[in-house]
Write a structure and sequence with these properties.
heterodimer, A: 109 residues, mainly beta, Immunoglobulin-like, B: 118 residues, four-stranded antiparallel beta sheet, 0% helix, globular
Chain lengths: 109, 118
């Protein structure tokens, strides 16, 4: 079955430290993956997608088909990065988008 | 407004009551999604519309859940005979194109409708 797994419910790091939010997926087709973010009292919004291969707010994510992973990374965390982060997968056969359970990132000053 | 609008923002229902949740997507957006988000969980897919056609309703948890988008714009999610396990935030999202289009597949979310069933 298609599934997105985010093993960490909470990740707490100090400001300036590197961040890695883990995401693993289970999908037999050609995956397309995204990271969505929800800042406090804001709506869920797109952070980045793997097909764009871009860095947004210093975050990058590389699709590793061998490990079926799409981890989100940032070399130096900032306090404004504190938020809920959701990894999402879109099926190749349709436009159904499924989300992981989310990781709360807390940046300590 | 320019964003996805959902109403009501909060709804308290007695068990057994019917509720209707409304979503106004961004004008011109083809795709519309409904998600259910329980406390501490990620959004769970309920159903997907492309214009007025409901292309996927595989996530609707029971036949008490019904969604429509008759004119390809506003959508309503109806829950009949609500149960306590229906308590959740119901999120609506729209996108300009279909999800796999890199240019138009970005989902724009509403603020959600928080349903509490007593």
């Amino acid at each position: 079955a298609q599934r997105v797994t985010q093993p960490e419910k909470l990740l707490s790091v100090f400001k300036g430290a590197p961040v890695e939010l883990k995401c693993n997926y289970s999908y037999s087709g050609s995956p397309e993956l995204f990271w969505y973010v929800q800042y406090s009292r804001q709506r869920l919004q797109l952070l980045l997608r793997h097909i764009s291969r871009e860095s947004i707010k210093g975050f990058t994510a590389d699709l590793n088909k061998g490990e079926t992973s799409f981890h989100l990374k940032k070399p130096f965390a900032q306090e404004e990065d504190s938020a809920m982060y959701y990894c999402a997968l879109i099926y190749s056969s349709a436009s159904k988008i499924i989300f992981g359970s989310g990781t709360r990132l807390s940046i300590r000053p | 407004g320019a964003g996805v609008s959902q109403s009501p923002r909060y709804k308290v229902a007695k068990r057994g009551q019917d509720v209707a949740l409304r979503c106004d997507p961004i004008s011109g957006h083809v795709s519309l999604f409904w998600y259910q988000q329980a406390l501490g969980q990620g959004p769970e897919f309920l159903t997907y519309f492309q214009n007025e056609a409901q292309l996927d309703k595989s996530g609707l948890p029971s036949d008490r859940f019904f969604a429509e988008r008759p004119e390809g714009s506003v959508s309503t999610l109806k829950i009949q005979r609500t149960q306590q396990e229906d308590s959740a935030v119901y999120l609506c999202a729209s996108s300009k194109g279909t999800g796999r289009d890199a240019n138009t597949g970005e989902l724009f979310f509403g603020e959600g409708s928080r349903l509490t069933v007593l």
